[in-house]
Amino acid sequence: MKKIIGVDLGGTTTKFAILNEAGEIEQKWSISTDIEREGINIVPNIIDSINQQLSQSGLSSTDVLGIGMGSPGSVDIDKGTVIGAYNLNWKTLQQVKEQIEAGTSIPFYIDNDANVAALGEQWKGAGEGNANVVFITLGTGVGGGVVAEGKLVHGAGTAGEIGHMNVDPNGYECTCGNVGCLETVASATGVVHLAQDYAEGYAGDSELKGLIDQKQEITAKIVFDQAKKRDPLAKKVVDKFSFYLGLACGNIANILSPNAIVIGGGVSAAGDVLVDGVREYFEKYAFPPVKTSTEIKLAQLGNDAGVIGAGSLVKMSR
Ligand SMILES: [Zn+2]
């Protein structure tokens, strides 16, 4: 059986894995991402690291079916280029595929990081065995990826930008220039924004309110932890968050009828308290047959979703 290499390129760390064709991780390693000098060393460092690991493992380029990679920024999957990945300092067009294929002699495939994580969860995670999976990642921002009938959906280019689904036409301003995008209320910063807003007019007894009034730094984790402890203000905030995300999930499911909507990313570490609330509003807004055909699930692969999904890119290209 041949090997597959998965690469998950991030702003601080680049993660790698050697997988078998069944998607099982055989080796895993990582390097720090050198974003100095407009990220000029990022691709050469990836090439060196792959070549080094292969030779240490007694493998050659012919043992490898392909290299798949998830990248931030705007990815042209056909040309294998990336532009506008600001956390990598990549402002100009990067010829990633050309360089990596020249440097390793291995076929290379690339897609954006949220799409790749969606593929990972669909292949070996919470969506395993399902051909129709929507992935929503709740982190600093909100990203998404859609796998429909076994294929990653790109549309005319940017399908799956679930973070910019409108859930409140009178809502908070978004970095994209619009207002009320899901990202403004369901990202880590969005949850904090909701908490600060709700705290303002809140008169009851609440530990969360106390922390906010004392100008302590609030995080999404603090809000969810307080909700688990039944803090009344935190419960209100989590309920509003659940309403927005549940509404988005209902709308997504009505259009795509996925087997599963998988929720991942740092904020999803809150666990059951998060997914239970989302499910409640999902069931309120989903079209009746969709309520039973679509499951709302927590992601299972954590940090491995990226490298496994990147490996899936190689499998799917064949
Ligand atoms: Zn937006």
From TrEMBL:
SUPFAM superfamilies (UniProt xref): Actin-like ATPase domain
Entry EC number(s): 2.7.1.2
Entry's Gene Ontology molecular function annotations: ATP binding; glucokinase activity
Pfam family, one: ROK
Enzyme class: transferase
InterPro entries linked: ATPase_NBD, ROK, ROK_cs, ROK_glcA
Signal peptide coordinates: none
Keywords: ATP-binding, Kinase, Nucleotide-binding, Transferase
One cellular component term from this protein's GO annotations in UniProt: cytoplasm
Any one biological process term the GO annotation gives: glycolytic process
Sequence similarity: Belongs to the ROK (NagC/XylR) family.
UniProt name for this protein: Glucokinase
Originating species: Aquibacillus salsiterrae
